[in-house]
Specification:
- The chain is an alpha/beta fold.
- It folds into two domains: 226 residues, TIM Barrel (Alpha-Beta Barrel), CATH 3.20.20.10; 129 residues, Lyase, Ornithine Decarboxylase, Chain A, domain 1, CATH 2.40.37.10.
- The chain is built from twelve helices and 20 strands.
- A hairpin with a 7-residue loop joins strand 16 and strand 17.
- Helix 1 crosses helix 3 and helix 11 packs across helix 12.
- The longest helix is centred in the middle third of the chain and has 20 residues.
Length: 395
Amino acid sequence: MTPAWVEIDADALVHNARVLRRATPPEARLGLMVKADGYGHGLVPAARAAVEGGADLLMVATLDEGLRLRAAGIDAPALVVYPVPPDGVGDALDANLQLSVAGLDSTRRLLEALRVRQPLAPRAVLELHVEVDTGMGRGGVAPADLATVLELIDAAPATRLVGVWSHLADGQNAAVTTPQVERYEAALASMAAAGRPTPLRHLIATEPLFAETAPAYDMVRIGIGYYGELGLGYEPTPRMAPLAAELRPAMAIHARPVRLERVEVGTPVGYGQEWRAERPSLIATLPIGYADGWSRRSWPGAEALVRGRRVPLVGRVSMDSICVDVTDVDGVSVTDTFTLLGADGDERIRASDLARLLGTIPNEVYCSFVGPRLGRVVRGAAEASGGVAIPAKAG
């Protein structure tokens, strides 16, 4: 049993995929990001829910993530969006994973490894997407090298160019996005001028889909929107706002107290004694701390929910615990479930709320606040086996 756990609503993920399918132009495919352990939601449950919800392509960041999909029996088309080491090309080929190439030298090394490996699987074909750097600056083939990279792919055995893509640096900002779209279009035009058929084109993610700052082309690549959040600081267009409002967060973080103690005025709580009770108070200690991913920066300011009420965290976050002031909530006991992320009654704490408090983005909250020590329960359509036992309430 675990006194602190993450709960994933797989039905919410399926719902979100279907909403995103409706938000995507009918002629375009839907690609969903399940990298980074499904943004903390679990790679396999997130992938299963994505497929059930209508995703055309799953996307991961590493070869290991792609191989985990296949080991779980998920055979849907899957793309590894970051370059893989040359010694992984055989595993990718065997697992029928699509790969992305993002630079001239790395493409040469990858294709040389394929040349050595391919005779062992003579009928296998490696499907490749070429990333073009249009202004993100962290990866992708330089436009000046694109023709050479395409020639290398043409000359390599058992390869098929299936996609060409780029990534926007600020998808909600049209002033930044428009020049990148122009560079991407120039790359596509150079391919057409060389007489090359245009492969699958994909450029936009969650923010530009809902802000409508760039074309959807042949596929959209959705990350944070699939998990029920949008980026901070912008509003969807009026046309897209109703669909954005339908997205539902799928993650909740819960804990049950390991201690409930009344303290007198002036009693300190936590390291450094930075918080002291200003009135007789009831303090609940929850067994979750920064070793579980709960950031030390969340105090002061963060809250929990119990019995449908908001209660403040008090005192520094410890490695294994946080403390909560429940003085104003009647009847709290050690059998109550506290919610640190998610809903309780009419109240909800969202990843975006924590992101604003911490000066970050919901993506980081999802990926960083779910440490390996927390138990995990997946409920709904993509329920996974091997979940943890949640302690039953007394009585």
